[in-house]
Design brief:
Elements: H1 2-17, E1 25-31, H2 33-38, H3 43-51, E2 55-59, E3 65-71, H4 78-82, E4 85-87, E5 93-95, H5 96-99, E6 102-105, H6 106-136
Antiparallel strand pairs: 1-3, 1-6, 2-3, 4-5
Length: 140
């Protein structure tokens, strides 16, 4: 009995050691500068609300204001992130979806991009093969 319990314990410890860690997801949150100005806030102020939970980096410049959020677990999607409550300014608290112009899942976009590139490469390879077969055949 001790041997069986030791084997089960050993197998569970080894399987935990080889368990796959969840991948990190990256989201790009875009804001409208006019709306931020109307709410008397900025991306750095909004970032303070998210910084306690996630790794964040805010960007503001000539283009749209943006925050990049890195989530340490894989099961969060854009809808759940949009429901996250943040402090907009010293007087107002709102959900991220109300303030953000758009929330983009960068991992999903990367997977779609990789799929499109792979399908394009497959089509070009098929065209090259079919083009070579036609050129190799002599014409009368």
């Amino acid at each position: 009995m001790k041997r069986i319990s030791f084997i089960i314990f050993f197998i569970s410890i080894v399987s935990l050691g080889f368990a796959k860690e969840p991948e990190e997801k990256t989201f790009l949150i875009l804001f409208d500068k006019a709306e931020l100005k109307a709410n008397k806030t900025s991306t750095t102020y909004i970032e303070l609300s998210l910084n306690n939970v996630f790794k964040t980096k805010s960007y503001a410049g000539n283009s749209d204001a943006a925050i990049i959020v890195k989530v340490p677990y894989d099961n969060l999607d854009t809808c759940q992130l949009a429901d996250f409550f943040i402090r907009v300014n010293s007087n107002k608290v709102a959900s991220l979806g109300e303030i953000a112009l758009q929330i983009i899942d960068m991992n999903e976009c990367k997977n779609t991009y990789d799929y499109l590139v792979a399908s394009f490469d497959d089509k070009t390879q098929k065209n090259k093969k079919s083009g070579k077969a036609v050129k190799a055949a002599p014409s009368p």
